[in-house]
User: What shape does this take?
Amino acid sequence: MRIHQLGSLRLAQLHDGYGAIDGNRVFYPAKQHEWEAGLAPDPVGFMMNAYQPLLITEGRQHTLVDTGFGEANPNRKGDLREGLAQLRVSAEQIERVIITHAHGDHVGGNTVTRDGTPVPTYPNAEYIVQESEIAAIREANDELWRLRFAPLETAGQLHLVDGEVALSDAVTLWPMAGHTEGQQGVRFSSGGQHAVFVGDLGLSYKNFENPHWGASWAWSREYDEANRRMVAEWAVEHDAIVIMYHDPRTPWIRLDRAGDGYKASPVA
Ligand SMILES: [Zn+2]
Assistant: This one.
């Protein structure tokens, strides 16, 4: 587990398993021969993908960012509950859950099924989501809404926000639409150090090295790239650690400007 003390915050990245993802869609419109170096894709372009929520501890307050694939992932090979147990944090102690965006691999652990009914996994937490993100999926009223969000609303645990919101002196919700309409990241500043959790603004460090390579399924590829550049510029100026959810080998990077994009260096 990756743990970093950032001023008054402890950031711990948990592990909720692996999957495979099509690199040709992650780095659209690049061709496989352009992106594959170092990523070891299979012959048709699928590469390893990880689900890595973040636990923020500030004093005695625990905040989880994204909840993993949860029980929906058949081949988990990782379980964020084990990471929480290692850190001696119980589900009951989580006070806040920040949801970056409403895709199944980020919100699958919002709820667990008990006696056939989905209930909040973190019974004492408020789940914080951007209003614009919820509006889209509430209207769709599909399984994702019914299984992973409606039970939170029923329990009075769904907390909607609109735009940038400071949760404390050190932790700020940072809207970064593009991958979805209401995606938010989380910005950390404490003790003169800085970091940002970017959700799926970048699925791999190569999305930051080449900001015009973005997920083909993004809600808006234009916003996705523009916000990737905006966040990368902030990271360069603040020498910030950029924390990704999916990158299995180098989820924490620092960025320097290079040509039309950036050079990523892994943070140990
Ligand atoms: Zn994702």
